[in-house]
Design a protein that fits this description.
With about 475 residues, the chain is mainly α. The protein has helices spanning about 1-10, 15-35, 45-60, 75-120, 120-135, 135-140, 145-170, 170-185, 190-205, 225-250, 260-265, 295-300, 310-325, 330-345, 370-375, 385-400, 400-420, 430-465; strands at about 215, 220, 280-285, 290. The protein has a two-stranded antiparallel ribbon with strand order 1-2. A two-stranded antiparallel ribbon has the order 3-4. Helix 16 runs antiparallel to helix 17 (about 400-420). The radius of gyration is 24 Å and the shape is globular. The termini are far apart. The relative contact order is 0.11.
């Protein structure tokens, strides 16, 4: 994958290369400037990930303690543990930031190449670099040792590998797409369905790309499609197998990611009724009845169980019963959450510093005007940009073929999955840069279409004279 991308970059003309270099300076400059102004120790979920990472680093135990051995998803602790290897106890936070933003920038640069080739419009690719470099939530989360920066970085890499696979039909790129996508899902399970749909898109596009002379297997799939699907699956297994085997040895059961997801489903309703539903008790499939709702109460009821796996099995019974009791109201709940995601942004209390005003707290004399301007030009989402982003996803799917489908799937599906679980706005923060670019893509495409219509009408009027 890197070979062709590097060769492509070598063939760039000097003005384009200088533009990319300038945008690289903006990308790194905004982040480093922000990091130098902020001082915030990890707490809450962030501290949990650091504690797990320290256990991984010191004695390769992938849990916070023996009672939480399969609770946490592994990707973020793994990257923090790698940062501990690189920077030690005193420098691991800086190592983590540079490591994550290095992955993100590499993914964006590779995606720049692919979008340039698929869209046949270099300015669309420039816009991606500009949007990400000056995206407020991307800069904000780049400081924190959490899943947001990890998800964004792996999202760029996954999409870049996926688009490269679609363009070249290479097995190496397909394997990288599967591996990066699975690491993304192991960081945040909301991405799992999107990654699998991306893999399906890769296979279907390989099967219908016009090269019909390829040999067919059982009259259905071309050899190219099977090779890419197999390579994608191998990439998934390379990353997933060690985690599945490790969890099976502990629990003697299939634990795909971690056991925290069940609590996420109970975070808000806690087994209680939603919408117009009313009930005061909830019968479970094992014959017991829940009469006290809310996650704290449910946690107390399973506190006597020694491991998170056993507690999770019990809480899963509550989730199943809750879904059976509220299935008619559930679609309305998901729709309400999606509308909330579209209009609301924020760190959901996972911060002690401002997410809105990033620069200026540590101003030197004479820097006030510069930081005020910098704060003003940063991009962020709104209800309008969210709506336009959906239109951009549709336009991309209709105009860019398989590449557009990949971009649309990775931007929209994780939001829908998150809305099925929880209404915490932080769950969609890593998607904001991609959605902002899709909003730009929609507006640029609409402007180009209107310009073409006006030009066609003008020429037609000139011919009639």
């Amino acid at each position: 994958m890197n070979g062709l991308s590097v060769n492509t970059l070598k063939r760039l003309e000097k003005p384009e290369l200088l533009t990319i270099l300038a945008l690289a300076v903006v990308f790194w400059g905004t982040r480093i400037l922000y990091w130098l102004q902020i001082s915030e120790a990890p707490f809450s979920d962030l501290l949990d990930y650091v504690n797990v990472a320290r256990n991984v680093y010191t004695h390769f135990f992938w849990g916070e303690n023996p009672s939480l051995s399969t609770y946490f998803a592994p990707t973020t602790p793994a990257l923090i543990a790698l940062s501990l290897v690189i920077g030690g106890e005193t420098g691991f936070q800086w190592a983590f930031r540079f490591l994550l933003q290095g992955i993100a920038f590499a993914g964006i640069l590779l995606l720049y190449v692919e979008i340039s080739l698929f869209a046949r419009n270099r300015y669309h690719a420039y816009a991606l670099l500009i949007v990400v470099a000056l995206c407020r939530p991307s800069i904000f989360w780049s400081y924190k040792l959490g899943t947001e920066a990890v998800s964004e970085a792996l999202l760029w890499l996954t999409m870049a590998a996926g688009l490269r696979t679609l363009r070249t039909h290479g097995w190496g790129a397909a394997m990288l797409a599967g591996a990066a996508g699975l690491a993304l899902g192991l960081g945040r399970p909301q991405f799992f369905p999107a990654v699998l749909l991306m893999g399906l898109t890769i296979v279907l596009c390989a099967n219908s790309d016009g090269r019909m002379a390829s040999p067919r297997i059982a009259g259905l799939l071309s050899r190219t499609a099977l090779r890419q699907g197999f390579a994608f699956a191998i990439g998934i297994l390379i990353v997933w197998s060690p985690w599945l085997i490790r969890n099976y040895r502990i629990t003697h059961d299939f634990v795909a990611v971690g056991t925290s997801g069940t609590e996420s489903l109970l975070w808000e309703a806690g087994g209680g009724p939603i919408g117009r539903q009313t009930y005061t008790s909830l019968p479970l499939s094992d014959g017991t009845v829940i009469t006290e709702f809310g996650l704290p109460a449910l946690r107390r009821q399973v506190a006597h169980l020694p491991t998170d796996y056993e507690r999770n099995k019990r809480l899963q019974l509550v989730v199943d019963a809750w879904l059976r009791a509220n299935w008619q109201e559930f679609p309305a709940l998901v729709t309400k959450r999606l509308l909330y995601f579209a209009s609301t942004r924020g760190p959901s209390a996972l911060t002690t510093v401002s997410r809105e005003r990033l620069f200026g707290d540590a101003d030197r004399p004479g820097w006030t005007k510069m930081t005020r301007v910098l704060n003003a030009i940063l991009f962020d989402k709104s209800a309008a940009t969210s709506a336009i982003a959906v239109a951009g996803a549709v336009i991309a799917a209709l105009t860019l073929g398989g590449a557009g489908w990949v971009l649309a799937i990775m931007a929209i599906v994780p939001s829908i999955v998150a809305a099925c679980v929880i209404s915490v706005e932080r769950s969609v923060e890593p998607l904001i840069p991609l959605q902002l670019w899709l909003a730009f893509f929609a507006m640029a495409t609409a402007f180009a279409w209107l310009t073409q219509c006006v030009e066609t009408k003008r020429r037609h009027s000139a011919n009639l004279r």
